[in-house]
Structure to design on (130 residues):
């Protein structure tokens, strides 16, 4: 957050790091994934003018994280699972704001075809955000 908008100088490298951490579970406490979700939120808040061009890649990774956090049946405690879902939802809301509503448009078909209640609830929160 200290770098502010200057973070855009490192966006290509930072995006690769963020995507790498979002893809892989790091154990029951999911400390790395939770930390990288905070990093992504901060990055979106500070570098929001550059987020629309990164939307397809980040949206795909966040949706995959939502699905994985809900469906993985490992030793991850329920509060950690809920924190992952909440963090991913917050990132989707921020992405939607930075892209002037494009996330909501892209999620319309996903929300209607998803049968998992917890994932639907996260998508509903994104759809209802202002």
């Amino acid at each position: 957050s200290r770098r502010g908008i200057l973070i855009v100088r490192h966006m290509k490298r930072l995006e690769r790091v963020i995507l790498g951490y979002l893809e892989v579970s790091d154990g029951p406490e999911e400390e790395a994934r939770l930390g990288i979700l905070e990093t992504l939120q901060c990055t979106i808040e500070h570098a929001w003018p550059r987020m629309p061009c990164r939307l397809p890649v980040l949206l795909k990774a966040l949706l995959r994280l939502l699905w994985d956090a809900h469906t993985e049946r490992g030793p991850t405690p329920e509060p950690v699972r809920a924190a992952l879902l909440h963090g991913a939802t917050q990132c989707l809301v921020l992405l939607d704001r930075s892209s002037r509503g494009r996330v909501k448009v892209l999620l319309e078909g996903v929300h209607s075809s998803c049968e998992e209640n917890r994932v639907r609830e996260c998508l509903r929160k994104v759809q209802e955000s202002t």
Remarks:
- The chain has one domain: 2-128.
